[in-house]
């Protein structure tokens, strides 16, 4: 009989000092992998994402909150599987409570502006003094010790050069539609945390993991050698296609767009055959890869002239028959319900804790599969600030009724 599968990070406790998107996405991944995540919020205000429109509630989706139990979709999706406590870190007693949590924790994650955690007395050195084995992760715009200022996704996209990797030559920069910096940096943060946990297995010591949003996104931009392309006279910004790999990119159809990859000889010949022009394979301008790159604009114009006369389905069918990689360019709403990602729980249904799935919405899952483990989120969500105070402070820390009453009356909780 097969033993029930557990999640890979079960048994690890995370203290979550993050808010907005980048930090909460890192702790969301840790929660989905099985860690117990304790989200710490200020008693008055809480996570900024609680006030993000739109909201979900008894009346469905609303731009403005109409009922007390309407919940921001941002908070609903980013706080899944987390236990929420309230704690005033600016109160002297609040720091003591926080350190009681750290003493029980394996991981602390924060995404304050650089220097804020130390200024509050809850930075790495303070946590290390209480728990030498703690892995303390800082996710910031420019690095834990860089005081360049606050960073948002669009700021990092601008500074990283990413906005000038898309779009047409001479056209304005293009903001990537998904918050790519806010999503990429947390993935590196989780990689760093897990690497530090593995090192702790050998040394018994924790450490400070420091990830910057600018560094994470710029490292991706740097995977292409922009200077070399410029030196070779190749245009870096080519819009819907990548001319140094031509034919490679997005082409227009009569009723939409398709993505096509025909870089290598068999693929290029398959594309030419689908176009009804097999002789292009002998044309000196297109007979090999270098020639196609050198004449990319001419080749792409011919492909578009063909594809624009046909519906997406016909173009896809013609290319698939010849083994050429092709796909329709889909709207996000269609992509999120692809059976391949639904079956693997890479996207998940959004459910209100009281009203369930009142509308058909999907959000991100954990896009990792294990042969001897599973992923998923605890049935926990801090709908109200401090919702799990009793469960954490009483059960995990052993605080008494007297302790809880005093902390509440003093404004600590």
Q: Which helices and strands, and how do they pair?
A:
Blueprint (H helix, E strand, L loop, with lengths): L12 E5 L4 H11 L3 E6 L13 E3 L2 E3 L8 E2 H6 L3 E5 L5 H12 L3 E4 L5 H5 L3 H7 L4 E6 L12 H8 L19 H24 L4 E5 H9 L4 H6 L16 E6 L2 E6 L3 H10 L14 H6 L1 H12 L4 H10 L4 E3 L3 H4 L3 H5 L3 E3 L12 E3 L24 H8 L4 H9 L4
Parallel strand pairs: 1-2, 1-7, 2-6, 7-8, 8-9
Antiparallel strand pairs: 3-4, 3-5, 10-11, 11-12, 13-14
Helix pairs in contact: 1-7, 6-8, 7-8
How is this structure best summarized?
The protein is α/β, with parallel strands linked by helices. It has helices spanning 22-32, 73-78, 92-103, 116-120, 124-130, 153-160, 180-203, 213-221, 226-231, 265-274, 289-294, 296-307, 312-321, 332-335, 339-343, 389-396, 401-409, and strands at 13-17, 36-41, 55-57, 60-62, 71-72, 82-86, 107-110, 135-140, 208-212, 248-253, 256-261, 326-328, 347-349, 362-364.
Question: What is the percentage of strand-forming residues?
Answer: 5-15%
Low-confidence stretches: none
Structural class: alpha/beta
The helix fraction, in percent, is 25-40%
Number of distinct helices: 17
Across the major sheet, the strand order is: 6-2-1-7-8-9
Mean pLDDT, to the nearest integer, reads 94
Cα gyration radius (Å): 26 Å
Largest sheet: 6 strands, parallel
Question: Distance N terminus to C terminus?
Answer: 47 Å
Can you characterise this structure?
The chain is α/β, with parallel strands linked by helices and 413 residues long. Helices cover 37% and strands 15% of the residues. It is built from 17 helices and 14 strands. The protein has helices at residues 22-32, 73-78, 92-103, 116-120, 124-130, 153-160, 180-203, 213-221, 226-231, 265-274, 289-294, 296-307, 312-321, 332-335, 339-343, 389-396, 401-409, and strands at residues 13-17, 36-41, 55-57, 60-62, 71-72, 82-86, 107-110, 135-140, 208-212, 248-253, 256-261, 326-328, 347-349, 362-364. The protein has a 6-stranded parallel beta sheet with strand order 6-2-1-7-8-9, sandwiched between helices. A 3-stranded antiparallel beta sheet has the order 4-3-5. Strands 10-11-12 form a 3-stranded antiparallel beta sheet, with helices on one face. α1 (22-32) links the parallel β1 (13-17) and β2 (36-41). α1 crosses α7, α6 (153-160) packs across α8 (213-221) and α7 (180-203) crosses α8. The protein is elongated, with a radius of gyration of 26 Å. It starts with 12 loop residues before the first strand and ends with a helix. The model has no long low-confidence stretch (mean pLDDT 94).
